[in-house]
Amino acid sequence: MKKSLKTLPNNWQERFENYFQSSDSKEILEKIEQILNLKSRKTCFRINTLKTSPEKVLEKLENNDIKVEKIPYLRYSYFLVNNNKRDLENLDIYKNWEIYLQNPSSQLPALILNPEPWEKVLDACSAPWSKTTQMASLMENSWEILAIELSHIRLEKLKYNLNKQWVDIVKTQKIDATNLLWILEKNSFDKILVDAPCSAEGRINLNNEKTYKFLSRKNTLEKARLQKNILKNVIPLLKSWWELVYSTCTLAPEENEAIVNFVLSQYRELEIMKIDLNLDFSTSPLKKWWKQIFDSRVENALKIIPSEQTEGFFIVKFRKK
């Protein structure tokens, strides 16, 4: 049975109704409610070019009668057309880590950061590590990525994933990202990815209470404070004229537009770069939230709404002057 946004706790439906302030906001909400009732999204995978080539993977898929569709806004990434995810998981190319299941939204932050060979990159919040290995692939296993993770268990899982995917340019450190400024050298990284811990509103499934039972004003504000503390510690680590990408998988303005507004007001040396992606499932960032009016440059961020293809995501790219 289809569930409505009223299922969400703490009057979260009212917040959702205020997330979209355009003329078609009602239509967007109805679409999102429909999407949040889906049991699953379209299966997406990216090809691990460190272990194989797109041609070899596509040949193996064809030989197993598995039809795929290229995702035009991503590199080496495909949707399953009519097959089940288990069909992929039964193949050697999956078991050998030649392909990796990853939602399209999750692939965009690394692609927008666009790390290249011979660049030094910081992955400040590496769990759950899919973006770390994706960046290594984009960099063709050249130069260096420093991946930060506080949890010992997650760090060991990251190392396992790196080994399975033949990634050898990633150095790992067990550090709290809110203490990086006291440990790492200022102005030492060419590019930085901050895929921040968040309230994960973009991953809500109305048929799975585990995905939304944590929603609360307190949790959202705690995540926003954590995100600010992380950024305070990583922004000084970025070299001048280089880039930082901040992303979340939530729709909460306190963790998205308000964070961008904070960065622009506190770090005058940072400018926000326009993300030019024409996506059917994106919407305009908010200009204000309750009594707070945001810097007009916030509109240059990319705000992705939940869809049949994507989880909800927010991505912004900064350059240090």
Q: What's the CATH architecture name of the largest domain?
A: 3-Layer(aba) Sandwich
The portion of residues assigned to helices is 25-40%
CATH class descriptor of the largest domain? Alpha Beta
- What is the count of structural domains? 2
CATH superfamily of the largest domain: Vaccinia Virus protein VP39
What is the CATH T-level topology of the largest domain?
Rossmann fold
Net shape: globular
> Unreliable segments (pLDDT under 50, ≥5 consecutive)?
none
Broad structural category: alpha/beta
Number of helices: 10
**Beta-strand proportion:** 15-25%
| Span of the ends, CA to CA | 53 Å
- Tell me the number of strands: 15
Characterize the structure shown:
It is globular and about 55 Å long. The model has no long low-confidence stretch (mean pLDDT 95). Helices cover 30% and strands 21% of the residues. The chain has 2 domains: 5-40 and 104-320, Rossmann fold (3-Layer(aba) Sandwich), CATH 3.40.50.150; 42-102, Sun protein, domain 3 (Alpha-Beta Plaits), CATH 3.30.70.1170. With 321 residues, it is of the alpha/beta class. The longest helix is centred in the last third of the chain and has 18 residues, at 217-234. Helix 6 (104-113) packs across helix 7. It has 10 helices and 15 strands.
